[in-house]
Request: fold
Amino acid sequence: MTPSILTPMLALIVWTFVIWVWMYATRIPAIRKAGIDPSKIKQKSDLDVLPMRVRQVADNYNHLHEQPVIFYALLTYCYLSGAVDSFNVFLAWSYVGIRVVHSLIQCTINYVPARFTVFALGSLALFVITVRCVIALVR
Reply:
């Protein structure tokens, strides 16, 4: 049986919702504590008064809608083109694990050099899957 390349996609979607819950669990109480009227929020900078620990969770939620879009498109391509093998599935799961680590770093200590290193590893995993898909296409 060919390993499913779609399961890591589902896992990252589930993780995104975990961060979504974390974001609102911290943001709503912080907005209340700051005395901000939600109906008067017009732009992101209106929330700059919130504590950094609250804003970094929201920033991570936004980040989970940036580079992972490439991940979703790439794995969909792998699935539809038949470029699924154990190594691509391994790389896909690696990417999910890397994004979880990235989230945990950003949502807690937010140490940028560590975040960058983890982000670069995730980018490398996506790059390798991409190269492998291109090679499979030209064969």
Observations:
- Helices lie at 6-34, 52-63, 67-81, 86-107, 112-138.
- The chain has a mean pLDDT of 96.
- DSSP finds five helices and no strands in the chain.
